[in-house]
Every structure is written in C-alpha cells, then in structure tokens.
Amino acid sequence: QSVRLPTPETAPVRYGAVCRQTKIGSRTECSGVTAMTEVPLRKRLTRGSAYGDAFGRKFTGHWIVKPGREVNHSNVTKYLNLSYDTTVHYIGVHLHPFAESLELYDLTAKKTVFKSKTRGFKHKIGLTHVDTFSSEAGVPVFKDHEYDLVSTYNNTTSHNVDSMAVMLLFLFDKQFRKPEVHIATQTTTILHVAGAPKIEERHVVLRTPLGDLLLDLYPEAAPQTVSQILALVGAGAYDTTEFYRVQPGFVIQTSTVFDRTNPLTPAQSAIVHKIPGEFNDLMHVRGALSLSRDENDVNSGESSFSILLADAPHLNGKYTIFGRVAKGLDVLKAIENVPRQPDNRPSERLPILKAELISGPQLKHLQLAPAHALVVPPALSPSSSSNQK
Predict the structure, then answer these.
(1) Where are the alpha helices (DSSP H) in 36-156?
(2) Spatial distance between the Cα atoms of 83 and 106, rounded to a whole number of angstroms
(3) What pLDDT sits at residue 27?
(4) φ/ψ of residue 380, rounded to 5
(5) Are the CB atoms for 46 and 64 separated by under 8 Å?
(6) Contact predicate 241/259, CB 8 Å
(7) I need a labelling partner for 347 at 20 to 30 A (CA). Which of 86, 104, 233, 334 fits?
C-alpha cells in the first residue's frame, strides 16, 4: 500500500492495490484497496517513507494503523490492466505485523479470487505465516470484470503501528513468444608443434605420500600456462594441495591452489589468473599434463591440472597440453590404484606434500622417492576441491 499525501493535514484517504495498496489523497491511484476515511495524514505517514512522482505528488508505501481493526477496499481493475482473459498461477503477499488478511475480490462475479490469511506469534509481535497461492492450472481472471483488493489490519496494541500491503500476481501471458536463442560458440586456434616440443629448463617435482613425480613443461606449446604453473610452484602455492580425483584408465587431477590445507598468502593469490586456452596438436596420451578448465569456458583454466593415465583422443584440441611426466610412472600407477569413493575421490586424502622447481646441476643429483604404500600425515585434513576437469 502506498499513500499519496495531500497538502491539508486532514483529508479523505483512499487505499489502493493491485500489487501495492496506495493512498492518494481523496481517491485511489496505483495498486490497491478502496476505503474512504477521514484521517490526519501527518499522523498516518511513517517517518522517512514519503517519495514523489513526476507530477509532484507525494506518496508513502507505509501508513499508520491506529488501535483497533481497519478494513480497506480499493478497486484495482485498471491496475491489473487485463487486455484478455487469462489465469493467475502464483500470488505472493507482503504484510506487516497485525495484518489479518489481504484479499483479491471479483466484484463482477461476487467471489474471492484469493484471500491470504496470516498467523502471528502468541506472546510477541510479528507474523509467523502469510498464505501464498500456487497452481499449475491457475485461477481465471477476466478483462471485463471489476476487482477489489481488501486488506484487514487489527492493531491490538494501545499505540499506532506501521502497515503495508503488497500482492504480487503472476499471470499467464498469452502474448508471450519464446525468443530464439542463438548460442555463440567459442572458436579456438590449434597451435602446430613441429617435432618434439621444447622442454623448459626448469622442471617440477611433486612430492607425494606414494612417491615423487618429475614433470617436464612445454613453454613454446603453452607459454602462458607454463609461466603461471612455474610461478605458482616457485611461490609454494601447490604445497598441501591434493589429488582429489583418481579415475583409473583416464586421469588423476589436482585440486586448485585455493583448495589446499594451508590458505594462500596474498602474494600467492595474486599470481593466479584465468589463462586463455592454448590448444595445440600435442596428444592426450598417458603421462601428459592437461590444464583443467570449466567445461563451458575454454578460457577458464587457472591452476588445477590432470595427468593422463591412458590415451584420451577425445580431449585433443579441447584442453591445453603443457607438459608430461618425465619420471615416476610407477608412482603414477600407485596413485591410480588407491582405494576410491564412488565419485572417484580417494578414500584417504592424497596430498601434494610439496612442489619444487629443479634445474641445471640439481637435476643431475635429483633423488626421487619411488612408489610405496600410502601413508597420510595426520596433520593434513581433508579439503574441498575443484570441479573442473
């Protein structure tokens, strides 16, 4: 219910509502109920709730109800603005405490379309329930019928209270035409890698409870991907992440760096950004490193990646190949064989204890832990993980 405030302090007030009850001077405007009452408007206006329209008229969406029962009626036919007979399928209602009901009444047929009743607390002020309407079949409304909106408030206190009445009608629109939807497809360019891909001089070692993996990276085949992976490893962002997905015969997949046991520092978080798809003609074969992404967004890869456990030609040209497992295929097999839950999550959390950058002379003296039985450090608790491939 909105209320127009005329200049005189005391004037006839009429409420209105189709969706909102509105008081506009001596007559009803806007969605509402119709009631003629001589009241001091200054006392009926809730502080701070007045607003104006383009014609300089003042309204309020809230008004004061004095102690006792107050029933307001407004003819809301023109605000329904029905150009054809149709059906109402959902009605929502908003009322304030001390409201008893809000009713949409068909004056022509002399019957109620819908009446929302309320329930209040027994020992304190407030509403515990307001009826709404929902029907797949709907209830009919007619373009040549007249309609009233009727609100009833019962202020059981000894002082004035604030009030409001809103009814939201959802009608079947016979003139609606479903628009044609044209789905824009993302076009991608496949980079041709001539011969064997160039290998980055810095290598990545993943230390896991089952043994260690040595990874080669391909900077020319996927320069932005490799750059971000190297930066994240160098910053320690992969430490305490996990292999959250183990799907035998397909892939194992790391969580994102945001889903690790130890929260990222601001400096680590600042490294992460979405990487445009860098699709190349390298094959998804066993041991290949493939950047994970959202299935519907080719440019959504960040830090999660998969290691292929078998050839997967259906992924070629759709996901970014950025490296391979150079050493540790026995560890890869051990990871593939861990006990799993039905959703392919390992039964015991399988952490990446540490990710390291190795280069130059370090590579010659590198010692990798061989495959062995899973022993999970108790300090590493389960964490959530990415839902990307």
Answers:
(1) 41-44, 77-80
(2) 16
(3) 34
(4) -90, 105
(5) yes
(6) yes
(7) 233
